[in-house]
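Colleagues,

For the teaching module next term, I've prepared a clean inverse folding example: a structure given as tokens, and then the sequence designed for it. I'd like students to try predicting residues themselves before seeing the answer, so please don't circulate the second half yet.
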């Protein structure tokens, strides 16, 4: 598959979704993403296993695309205490049995945060498997160059030494703009 972005890399990622009984009377089921499967084949809500009322599905396989422009975000995620990938689920209004569809898989915490802002999608943080961690670390090592922090210096010109108090030069004014307003006479 040819990518439109130079040096971008992609890997198919399978998303495993767990359906468990709801804990309230308003929600029949609780849906959560339980894991990801790097290099998985295509799937469409294939049942992986069932234990009692809990069922795990291989919901979908989507490409995890790494972009050079997001290498800083990937580096930030790899430095986290628990490196993770993020899965975005979107409500599926057409099929009542499967209320969620998998919309996106990303390794960028910044992109995941953007999806959290809308409150229309469910964003799940999943621990990153070791093989996926190594693949992303190799990408970051190849494409990320940390920019050195350069503190901005002020100009040497001192503008605070002149305090003429006249204000805007375009407005004619003969007195000080910082003066106290004139007091009107008090009538008893």
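(Answer key — instructors only)
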């Amino acid at each position: 598959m040819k990518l439109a972005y130079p040096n971008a890399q992609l890997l198919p990622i399978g998303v495993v979704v767990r359906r468990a009984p709801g804990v309230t009377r308003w929600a029949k089921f609780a849906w959560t993403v339980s894991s990801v499967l790097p290099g998985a084949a295509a799937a469409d809500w294939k049942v992986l296993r069932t234990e009692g009322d809990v069922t795990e599905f291989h919901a979908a396989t989507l490409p995890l695309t790494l972009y050079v422009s997001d290498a800083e975000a990937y580096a930030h995620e790899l430095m986290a205490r628990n490196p993770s990938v993020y899965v975005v689920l979107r409500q599926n209004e057409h099929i009542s049995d499967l209320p969620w569809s998998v919309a996106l898989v990303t390794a960028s915490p910044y992109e995941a945060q953007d999806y959290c802002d809308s409150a229309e999608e469910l964003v799940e943080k999943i621990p990153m498997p070791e093989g996926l961690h190594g693949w992303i670390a190799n990408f970051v090592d190849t494409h990320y160059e940390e920019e050195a922090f350069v503190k901005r210096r002020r100009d040497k010109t001192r503008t605070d030494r002149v305090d003429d108090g006249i204000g805007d030069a375009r407005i004619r004014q003969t007195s000080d703009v910082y003066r106290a307003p004139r007091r009107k006479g008090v009538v008893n």
